[in-house]
Amino acid sequence: EVQLVESGGGLVQPGGSLRLSCAASGFTFSSSAMSWVRQAPGKGLEWVSSIYSYISNTYYADSVKGRFTISTDNAKNTLYLQMNSLKSEDTAAYYCNTGMYWGRGTQVTVSL
Q1: If you ran DSSP here, which 8-state letter would residue 26 be given?
Q2: Among candidate residues 3, 94, 1, the one with its CA nearest the CA of residue 40
Q3: Rounded CA gap, 28 and 43, in Å?
Q4: Nearest Cα residue to 80 out of 90, 92, 91, 68
Q5: Of 9, 11, 85, 106, which is most buried by a Cβ count within 10 Å?
Q6: Are 106 and 7 in contact (CB under 8 A)?
Q7: Which of 38, 12, 22, 39 is nearest to 81 (CA)?
Q8: What are phi and psi of 35, to 5 degrees?
C-alpha cells in the first residue's frame, strides 16, 4: 500500500523558513518522480515543484523559484521541501504527490 505522510508545516513570519518532509512507503521511492503541490484557501491546486532524483532533475514553479528547494533522501524514502523567504502568498496546505497517490497534506501559514 502506497503511503505518503507530510510533516513540518506550521506558522511562520514573513521572511522565515520551514522544511517540509514527506515520508513515503509502499513503492520504489528512488525511481519515482515526486512532487509538491499546494492549495491556498479558496483556490485550486497549484503545482510547486518536482524532482526526478534518478536523473537528478528538479523543477520549480516561477512563484517559488530561488526560494524553495526540493530534495530527496533515498535511504530514508523521504521527500523534502526547504522553503526560505516565505511570503504570505505561500500560505497553503502542501501535499506530497507521486503519480495518482497523494498525502493528506501539511498546513503552512505565513503571517505576522
Answers
A1: S
A2: 94
A3: 32
A4: 68
A5: 106
A6: yes
A7: 22
A8: -140, 155
Closest CA to 16 of 51, 50, 67: 67
Q: What is the tens place of the pLDDT at every residue in 4-58?
A: 999 999 999 999 999 999 999 999 999 999 999 999 999 999 999 999 978 889 9
84 closest CA partner among 36, 15, 25, 34: 15
Range 60-97 burial, b when 16+ CB lie within 10 A, else e: beeebeeebbbebeeeebbbbbebeebeeebbbbbbbb
Q: Specify the residue for cell string 497553503.
A: 92
Average pLDDT, the chain: 96
Determine the pLDDT at residue 55. Answer: 83
